[in-house]
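Q: Sequence in, structure out?
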Amino acid sequence: MKLIEDWTTHFRKAWSIRLAGIAGVIGAYFVAYPGELERLSGMLPEAYREPFGLIAGFVIFATASGARLVKQGREQ
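A: Exactly. Output:
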């Protein structure tokens, strides 16, 4: 495995890394305060409560993966 050249610049600019960081912070918040997650799921319609975790996981995965597919940075 080789690191890409000037990886620190890419690390700061990559949206997939930013989105993964945001997902990590949100996940840590709900681990620290599980009552908030129950309250949030209680606001959803009954039909969406059971698949809520699956839908949320898919949205997070699709967003971060989609960010890797989009050309990022300035045109030079």
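The radius of gyration is 17 Å.
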